[in-house]
């Protein structure tokens, strides 16, 4: 028999409105009991649709005993402090990406989760895309032979199109976002590449620029060269300057063939083999900002809370994906190839 998980949402901006709130509401094991936003009208708007008590101070929401789990949907710089406070208050936490603004913060979040015995999950939705899961399976089976290279990209015209505050959004402010397109989109792709290849990124070289958004104090265009532990090299592009159409694609080049994970309404994975054969997998379109249904992030989080099993994207997984982005920033700053640090002291 399933129990009902009582959930609170902290931050009622775009990601909560488009993802967390509707996905919790659609899950029959969930009751939304509290919503919180520093802008009271936003919390009221969420409450009008989904119910729950209204808060403008997250500490008051966390003091509510009936809240068992929370989603942290705030600007990036608040992810760690709020998640840690929630875990310390005995709540399960689903935190948006990037999980933190430093490895130190990420490790403090992981420690708080371990100490409280509660679930900490980071909202990397790319792992739940069927085409991505299938690609991981093909590579793990050896069907592609040795993987030589990859390229992955995630770009769109920028958050001003969908953020509740438009060009005034926290996404563009360094003190609140800490990082721009690299944190918003690049971290998704580092997580995806780690997941698909089944190995860690060891070194990074990066160029990170603000080329399209004069009003932004964070990056909007970044290109990185990544090298994995076994020596696979590839590129990652993350951008808010793809003005006409979103690009959310990944191509894996192997000894026996190529896997193309591209924007196709029907075949989101196409395998082209050296013998000339082509396999088109009908797995539904890759989820993008323009094409969203259920991301499965919320459902997976609730399942982890109910079962007590570790989620697919634990704090440790979130930290490893963040570490690649931090190395990219360092590489751009120092103009050197940087090794990916696995922890604060490593």
UniProtKB/TrEMBL annotation:
**What is the name of this protein?**
Gfo/Idh/MocA family oxidoreductase
Q: Read off the Gene3D superfamilies from this record.
A: Dihydrodipicolinate Reductase, domain 2, NAD(P)-binding Rossmann-like Domain
Q: Where is the Gfo/Idh/MocA-like oxidoreductase N-terminal domain?
A: 5-124
**Which top-level group of life is the source organism from?**
Bacteria
Q: Where is the GFO/IDH/MocA-like oxidoreductase domain positioned along the sequence?
A: 132-259
Positions the record marks as coiled coil are none
Q: Name one Pfam family in it.
A: GFO_IDH_MocA
What species is given as this protein's source?
Fictibacillus barbaricus
């Amino acid at each position: 028999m399933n129990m009902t998980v009582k959930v609170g949402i902290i931050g009622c901006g775009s990601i909560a409105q488009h993802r967390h709130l509707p996905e919790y509401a659609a899950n029959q094991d969930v009751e939304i009991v509290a919503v919180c936003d520093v802008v009271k009208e936003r919390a009221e708007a969420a409450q009008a649709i989904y119910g729950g008590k209204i808060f403008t101070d997250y500490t008051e929401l966390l003091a509510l005993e009936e809240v068992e789990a929370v989603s942290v949907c705030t600007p990036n710089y608040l992810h760690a402090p709020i998640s840690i406070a929630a875990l310390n208050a005995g709540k399960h936490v689903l935190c948006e990406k990037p999980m933190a603004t430093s490895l130190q913060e990420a490790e403090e979040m992981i420690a708080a989760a371990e100490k409280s015995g509660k679930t900490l999950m980071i909202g990397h939705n790319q792992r739940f895309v069927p085409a991505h899961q299938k690609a991981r399976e093909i590579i793990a089976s050896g069907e592609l032979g040795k993987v030589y290279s990859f390229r992955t990209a995630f770009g769109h015209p920028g958050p001003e199109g969908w953020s509740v505050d438009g060009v005034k959004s926290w996404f563009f402010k360094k003190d609140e976002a800490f990082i721009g397109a690299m944190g918003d989109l690049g971290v998704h792709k580092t997580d995806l590449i780690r997941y698909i290849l089944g190995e860690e990124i060891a070194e990074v070289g990066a160029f990170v620029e603000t080329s399209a958004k004069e009003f932004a104090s964070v990056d909007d265009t970044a290109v990185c060269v990544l090298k994995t532990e076994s020596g696979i090299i590839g590129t990652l592009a993350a951008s808010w300057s793809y003005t006409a159409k979103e690009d959310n694609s990944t191509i894996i080049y192997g000894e026996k063939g190529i896997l193309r994970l591209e924007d196709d309404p029907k075949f989101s994975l196409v395998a082209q083999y050296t013998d000339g054969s082509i396999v088109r997998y009908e797995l539904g379109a890759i989820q993008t900002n323009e094409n969203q249904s259920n991301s499965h992030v919320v459902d997976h989080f609730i399942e982890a809370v109910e079962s007590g099993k570790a989620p697919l994207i634990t704090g440790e997984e979130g930290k490893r994906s963040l570490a690649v982005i931090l190395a990219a920033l360092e590489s751009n700053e120092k103009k050197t190839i940087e090794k990916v640090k696995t922890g604060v002291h490593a």
